[in-house]
Task: structure prediction
Amino acid sequence: MLQFLQFAAVRAAMAMFTLLMVSLIVFTLMELVPGTCAERYLAFKNTQGSGISVADIEAEERRLGLDRPFLVRWGSWVGNVFLHGEFGDSCILRLNINDLLGDKFLISLAICLTSLFLAYLIAIPVGIISASSKNAWLNGSLRFASYLGLAMPNFLLALMIMLASTVLFGDSMTGLFSNEYRDADWSMAKLQDFLSRAWLPVFILGWSATAFALQTVRALMLDEQSKLYVTAARARGLYGRRLLWRYPARHSLGPIINSLGFDLNRIFNELPIVALILTLTEAGALLLEALARSNDQQLAGAIIFLLTATIVGVNFITDIALALIDPRIRKSVVGGH
Result:
């Protein structure tokens, strides 16, 4: 137990250090964007083409505290993020980022995590069955489904479903809420309306994730089944499901669990494109808007930091889970023998 607590403490310290480094990188990238926040805001606000004076820029920079040294501003920003959960104001919109994001990031995260959960819920048992089955028709069908999932882009699948839904049912299935619930407060009726529409982005995002995870599980299982310890277990009289779940399946789960953070990042990277096609009002589309259109680096930095913090948190949880499954993992960190 002491060794496990030492492992958890070391991993927690590493996670916090990673978040600090990520916050420094994000803040630095925000600073490297051409023009200060004051200049971008004044340029965005100046629609009459009358020009922006140096005095106006300097006054706006003083008001925003941009005249302070870089490390002082980073320390203030990261302190507000870690201690108060505040990301400040949007550079362009001049609205509080916490209020601007609202539940958008949580909805986006819920969609991504649900897609990831369903992908692994399907891929792990199916991949194990595919690797251990001798049925050529079953293996061929599963391989075809996984290849199709990897080959077909998510945006094409979204367009196909929208077209089919429009032709068959007269509803394009765009948006996460119906018109009557879009601006309404959360209630049981709004939750039911959300669930009736959220399955589509969950299915589309989980499509390629399931195919990728299925290929990974199958490859790991085939590799583990050919190892000597499995042959030795068979020689001791261990067969069937007992052998399968006790040795190759158990050892194959380690790399799968360890890749959860990577897969979550990959799903979120695909979210903005799917969001634009399905006209979803969530953080993926908001991030694309902030980066590509309004150049609102404060808003984009907040979303990127939240996503990174989520991935670091997922990786921390998976490290703890791996340490519980495999003692070699925690020994490698705390130096046990």
